[in-house]
Design a protein that fits this description.
Length: 186
């Protein structure tokens, strides 16, 4: 099987149920999710299996769920089943709480960085926020967008923040507080 089809040579791409321009809002939204998935893959390569087994398991699950998100956005058929489930959001919330409890309490904003893995997880957080903005724009333009994708992305960015902090904490790297920040976390 060849990887190239030449069907996109004129700036159009296929969705499940139609063809659109490659700069369509829907394509931009699931393309940003694809970019996010690649950053997660990079973070996985930077995490030590013996220290971060739980995070690595989380990240693999998240990568699968992001494929679900992309598929749910790329499906424009009238009769369709949404793949992403509410239970994925519930699991994220439990993991966010657990990771937040593990890291030291926060009072101020922190600078993205620390270990290579934490820095990549912070990039994943910001790309997640961009993906969420793209989905919200799409939701504002079209009514037929699964709202669960936006909700999942909203929670996922919080997960990456908590995971980045734990990636630093478990390796004894302190988060650097933003020096002009007041106490914002209580």
């Amino acid at each position: 099987m060849k990887l190239y089809t030449k069907t996109g040579d004129k700036g159009k791409t296929s969705l499940m149920g139609g063809r659109v321009s490659k700069d369509d809002l829907r394509v931009e939204a699931y393309g940003t999710i694809d970019e996010l998935n690649s950053y997660i893959g990079k973070a996985v390569t930077e995490l030590d299996q013996s220290v971060f087994k739980d995070l690595l398991e989380d990240l693999e699950t998240i990568q699968h769920e992001l494929f679900d998100c992309g598929g749910d956005l790329a499906n424009v058929m009238k009769e369709r089943k949404i793949t992403l489930q509410e239970s994925s959001i519930e699991v994220l919330e439990k993991r966010i709480d657990s990771l937040s409890d593990e890291a030291p309490p926060l009072k101020r904003f922190i600078l993205p960085g620390g270990t290579p893995a934490a820095a990549t997880l912070h990039i994943a957080r910001t790309v997640t926020r961009r993906a969420e903005r793209r989905v919200v724009t799409l939701m504002n333009e079209e009514e037929d967008v699964p709202s669960i994708v936006q909700k999942y992305l909203n929670r996922l960015s919080d997960y990456f923040f908590a995971a980045a902090r734990v990636a630093n904490f478990r390796t004894n790297v302190k988060d650097i507080e933003y020096i002009r920040s007041g106490d914002v976390f209580k």
